[in-house]
Amino acid sequence: MPVLATAGSNHHAQLGREGDSSFFEVLSIEGDFVQISCGAHYTLALTRSGSVYGWGRNESGQLALSAPTVNYPTLINTCFDDRVVKVSCGESHSLFLTSSGQIYGCGEGSCGQRGDGTYHGECYEPRRVLLDETARDVFCGARTSFAITDSGDLFGWGETTTGMLGPKVWHTPTLAVPTRLSVGPSRTRTALVVASVNFAILVTTTGDILGAGSNSDGQLGIADCCTYTWRPIRDVGRVSLVACGRRHTLCYQVERKRCIVLSNKIESFKLSKPTGLAAGDDNIFAWTDGGSSLFVYGRNGDGQLGVGAIPYVERLTNVPLPIKANVVTVSCGRKHTCLLLSAEEVQHGNYMVFMEDSFAAGGTSFWETFRESDWKKPSFGWVCTATSFAALITGVLIARFYVCHR
């Protein structure tokens, strides 16, 4: 059964429940969820049937709802002709990909990131993106958008000032309509794109990794401070997983079986066969063994890593999950994180977490999780044992008192 859980700041209702939390807590919503995506201060969740739920900040209409703030997961009436198969969130804009390959956008559009040909600052009703070809995937950066077509061509639109849309469009600061991007030789086909505020990373169908945009923090792994062309990232080799944080790139190197972090702030780490990777604001998430274990490290100023009130997690640390479940995927907002979990049975209730041997065994913390109800309601056998022990101690004390006062 798919389950959603959130942690971090709730200043804009981006957790979909009451209060902030530095540990992950399950949301009280049921659905056959298959995908999640976090914007800066909001979240979208997609079900297998194509229904979309949203919550959090909505000042520009990025949730396709009317209220400026949506406190709890709310069904979005998209009114599309076809079923939604993917959602993607930028800083304050959203894209919806349908089963027919059409894309719709809503939210902030001052940089043209909606792709509807306008630069209106807000849009509360999704509009069709002006892409003439059939799309098979969509991706949002902070104020940019990308689409991969059935033929493997890459299109981009939105903010272009950092060069993250490649060489043909750097001379114009914004694009309001999708433009075909040049990413290398004519036969180069794009398999995946991930983007952040001022840089983007793409992976080709052959597993090569290229980057464009700002390199101010070493996120592209090149010598220059920025690039307006898609350049191969050296010394990485073939990758199978990749994620973009605010100022860093995270990827899994197939040959060396190592997670590479391209950054001046976060170090690379050894991790055997990760199932997935995610990156946020100067932090990383990696889940292994089919999602049975979730590891994090980096900035945790708002509790978004889900390991308690620790401002910065300095070593790879295991995250205590709120239920017995496997991690399907992770999505990071600016100050919050959402997990999509797969669980056989959901156990609602409060949890207490105790940390033992912190940062032991090569930097991994070991956590043990207990349900609060488990220790508040001891079994009958334990009650009898405790009562007998108390009676024995009382008898010994009375005997000692009698001997001393004879």
Features of the shown structure:
single chain, RCC1-like_dom, mainly beta, guanine-nucleotide releasing factor, 30 strands, 2 domains, Methylamine Dehydrogenase, Chain H, 4-stranded antiparallel β-sheet, RCC1/BLIP-II, about 400 residues
If you had to describe this structure to a student in words, what would you say it looks like?
The protein has 406 residues and is mainly beta. The chain folds into 2 domains: 1-25 and 234-346, Methylamine Dehydrogenase, Chain H, CATH 2.130.10; 30-233, Methylamine Dehydrogenase, Chain H. Helices cover 7% and strands 45% of the residues. The chain contains 2 helices and 30 strands. It has helices at residues 372-376, 380-404, and strands at residues 2-8, 21-26, 33-38, 42-47, 52-57, 69-76, 84-89, 93-98, 103-107, 127-128, 135-140, 144-149, 154-159, 174-180, 190-195, 199-204, 209-214, 226-232, 239-244, 249-253, 258-262, 269-270, 274-279, 283-288, 293-299, 312-318, 326-332, 336-342, 351-360, 364-371. A 4-stranded antiparallel β-sheet has the order 2-1-28-27, with no helix packed on it. A hairpin with a 3-residue loop joins strand 3 and strand 4. The termini are far apart. Mean pLDDT is 84; it is low at 345-386. The chain crosses the membrane at residues 380-403. Residues 5-338 form the RCC1-like domain. This is Putative regulator of chromosome condensation (RCC1).
